[in-house]
């Protein structure tokens, strides 16, 4: 598949849609323009943070990160272990049983009273694309932090085949979703280490995808979605880059995403997400926000699942780089800690005329689209099937593909038979020419044979005459000998 020369990375930051235009310059991807679009009427931030604080307890209880539950679990694990149900086991593995925590804030596109605002936003977005004058617009969407739920699952070691693994995962998911399997397009999974798999689940409705549908109505066959990945996956482009420059030793990288409304801590090892903590709602003051995230990270490390930390990577979405770095460096003094920036990737550069900051996640999504996708990015790409089918030039089923292959093979087969017939004809011609040469050469031999036959006949006649004349010769010789002796 041909990689696009121009790609647009789109990411929602609270009440703003940030759009970055990237152009392919040889092996480099260059960010040449940044645009911002107000979408406050769609995400309706009024009361959103209050809702986050109200639901924060629910999120923590589901994932088991509230302080009270930590102490209760430690005290009563021995007595209550036998009473746990299958749902409790799945909950301990990280399954989100509520699924209405943070992701619900991003599926407001279909609510009543937003049509007028959606038309306004989509029209403004379409005008931005028209400004650049591209006949074909390639898009890479980033689902913001918190819109994707992450959980891990251990598969029994006796399950080896891929088909049985899928069946096992679907069985566990059906129990989580009250015996009703969710839409396959809303969850993806990838095997991490050993028999553990990482499952990512996105909301049923995504605001950026709703915008894409409206854009396609305005200009069909113009907008093509190349990637729709969670922000955690998009940032993996920079985590992998950091891993390649780090010391080659056993250990995990800690990725901390500080968003405007929430934060998340992700543990990464071997280029894959090993675990992702639930979202941490933001508090008003930056120092308190950083300390809250830091305390949650310490709680995760105390569990003992992370044996060794290689580095700490921070995606700053609140504009407090120095303070965030100082908080973590003050405790982990010998541990590398740095802020991720879009221009740090070896295959991406920022054009001189670009003054606005380029979102790292948007750059990561564009990099994943323009280059070779890794296992995680390829698997956790949430492009709906209806969108991918619409973007196909030839919509063929398996039998159509087989028919095309057969049609393509017909000239090859016919040419093969033709070449064989030509070769056989040429061989026959060569044999005929050789036979004619042998006939010419054998004509002289035939004359010699005829001459020898004539001589043989003559000698035979002469020999016959001599036999006739020699009849009685012995008798007369004997008679003469007798007379001479007498």
Average of per-residue pLDDT values: 78
Strand order in space, largest sheet: 8-4-1-2-3-15
- The counted number of beta strands is 15
Poorly predicted tracts of residues: 45-113, 244-248
Shape: elongated
Distance between the termini: 129 Å
Helix percentage range: 40-55%
The value of Rg in angstroms is: 43 Å
Quickly give the structural class: alpha/beta
Largest sheet: 6 strands, mixed
Number of helices: 16
Q: What amount of the residues lies in strands? A: 15-25%
In words, what does this structure look like?
- With 486 residues, the chain is an alpha/beta fold.
- It is built from 16 helices and 15 strands.
- The strands form three sheets. Strands 8-4-1-2-3-15 form a six-stranded mixed sheet, sandwiched between helices. Strands 9, 10, 11, 12, 13 and 14 form a six-stranded mixed sheet that branches.
- Helix 5 packs across helix 7 and helix 10 packs parallel to helix 11.
- The N and C termini lie far apart (129 Å).
Write the layout of secondary structure elements.
Blueprint: E1 6-13, E2 16-25, E3 28-38, H1 40-43, H2 48-63, H3 67-80, H4 86-92, H5 115-132, E4 137-143, E5 149-154, H6 162-176, E6 187-191, E7 196-201, H7 207-218, E8 223-230, H8 231-234, H9 236-245, E9 252-258, E10 262-269, E11 272-276, E12 280-281, H10 286-302, E13 309-316, H11 321-329, E14 337-339, E15 348-350, H12 360-370, H13 375-379, H14 385-391, H15 398-469, H16 473-485
Parallel strand pairs: 1-4, 3-15, 4-8, 9-13, 13-14
Antiparallel strand pairs: 1-2, 2-3, 5-7, 6-7, 9-10, 10-11, 10-12
């Amino acid at each position: 598949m041909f990689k696009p020369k121009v790609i647009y990375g789109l990411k929602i930051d609270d009440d703003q849609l940030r759009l970055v235009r990237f152009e392919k310059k040889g092996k480099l991807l260059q960010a040449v323009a940044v645009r911002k679009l107000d979408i406050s009427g769609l995400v309706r931030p009024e009361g959103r943070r209050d809702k986050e604080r109200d639901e924060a307890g629910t999120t923590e209880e589901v994932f088991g990160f509230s302080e009270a539950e930590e102490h209760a679990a430690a005290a009563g694990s021995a007595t209550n272990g036998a009473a746990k149900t299958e749902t409790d086991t799945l909950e301990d593995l990280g399954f989100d049983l509520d699924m209405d925590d943070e992701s619900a804030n991003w599926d407001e596109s279909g609510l009543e009273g937003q049509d007028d605002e959606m038309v306004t936003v989509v029209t403004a977005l379409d005008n931005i694309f028209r400004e650049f004058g591209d006949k074909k617009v390639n898009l890479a969407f980033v689902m913001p932090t918190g819109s994707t739920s992450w959980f891990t699952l251990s598969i029994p070691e006796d399950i080896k085949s891929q088909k049985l693994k899928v069946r096992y995962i679907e069985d566990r998911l059906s129990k989580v979703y009250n015996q009703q399997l969710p839409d396959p397009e809303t969850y993806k999974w990838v095997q991490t280490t050993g028999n553990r798999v990482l499952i990512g689940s996105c909301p049923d409705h995504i605001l950026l995808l709703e915008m894409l549908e409206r854009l396609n109505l305005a200009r069909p066959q113009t907008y093509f979605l190349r990637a729709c990945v969670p922000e955690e996956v998009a940032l993996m482009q920079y985590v992998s880059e950091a891993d390649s420059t780090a010391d080659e030793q056993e250990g995990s990288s800690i990725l901390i995403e500080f968003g405007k409304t929430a934060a998340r801590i992700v543990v990464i090892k071997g280029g894959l997400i090993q675990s992702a903590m639930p979202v941490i709602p933001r508090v008003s003051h930056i120092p308190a926000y950083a300390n809250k995230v830091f305390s949650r990270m310490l709680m995760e490390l105390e569990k003992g699942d992370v044996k060794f930390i290689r580095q700490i990577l921070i995606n700053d979405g609140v504009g407090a780089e120095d303070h965030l770095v100082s908080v973590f460096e003050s405790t982990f003094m010998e541990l590398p800690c740095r802020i991720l920036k879009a221009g740090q990737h070896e295959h991406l550069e920022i054009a001189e005329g670009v003054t606005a900051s380029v979102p790292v996640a948007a750059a990561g999504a564009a990099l994943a689209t323009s280059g070779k996708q890794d296992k995680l990015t390829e698997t956790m790409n949430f492009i709906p099937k209806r969108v991918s089918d619409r973007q196909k030039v030839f919509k063929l089923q398996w039998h159509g593909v087989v028919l095309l292959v057969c049609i393509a093979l017909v000239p090859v087969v016919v040419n093969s038979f033709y070449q064989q017939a030509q070769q056989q004809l040429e061989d026959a011609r060569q044999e005929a020419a050789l036979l004619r040469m042998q006939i010419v050469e054998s004509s002289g031999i035939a004359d010699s044979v005829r001459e020898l036959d004539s001589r043989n006949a003559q000698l035979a006649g002469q020999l016959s005459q001599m036999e006739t004349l020699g009849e009685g010769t012995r008798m007369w010789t004997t008679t003469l000998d007798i007379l001479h002796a007498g």
